[in-house]
Write a structure and sequence with these properties.
This protein has 100 residues and is mostly helical. It has helices spanning 12-15, 22-30, 37-54, 60-76. Helices cover 48% and strands 0% of the residues.
Length: 100
């Protein structure tokens, strides 16, 4: 998904001060911009935080965000990554560099 269009949602950037989208996260992944897994996780958590900041919790958008966030958190368990309950930050090892 791409960044929210200001033309389609004029007030979004008045409410959300640090926008991010899956397309931005994918581009950063593809260009090896994340040095630590925690940087990737922080960007994904920012995406969820933006969703909940803009959308009322009872909307279908916020409910979809909750389901996706829960799934994301469940998948972090497999490689042994954990999200701190208080801050949303993680203590994780660095992401391995891709083989060329």
């Amino acid at each position: 998904m791409k960044l929210v269009s200001k033309a389609q949602v004029p007030d979004y950037y008045d409410i959300v001060k640090n926008p991010i989208a899956l397309s931005v996260i994918r581009e950063k992944m593809n260009n090896c911009k994340y040095k630590l897994a925690s940087e990737f996780i922080s960007d994904v958590e920012l995406m969820f935080a933006n969703c909940f900041e803009y959308n009322h919790i009872e909307t279908s958008e916020a409910q979809a965000g909750l389901r996706l966030r829960d799934y994301f958190h469940s998948q972090l368990q497999y490689p042994g990554l954990h999200i701190s309950e208080n801050t949303g930050h993680t203590n994780t090892p660095p992401i391995k560099q891709p083989r060329i």
